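ingest -> validate -> predict -> emit
validate: passed (alphabet ok, no gaps, 76 aa)
predict: started
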Amino acid sequence: MGQELIREADEFEGIAEPHVRDLIYPSSRRGKPEMKRWERAARFINEEDSRVRTYVRLLNGVECNVWVWVAKSRGS
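emit:
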């Protein structure tokens, strides 16, 4: 599906915020209204959503947010 997961030796796993944006809004659909929606959604996830942790990682020489799902599954 094109998702690029970030994996490290310590079992850290997540997905880079720009990759999520690109999946939802391909460059052909990135108008001003869409980007305002995206910025609002990303800000909510980064600041308010307790199910997701945000880490800053260096990817290809660029710092970006990486989201990691931390909510417990129902079976846990």
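The chain has one domain: 5-69.
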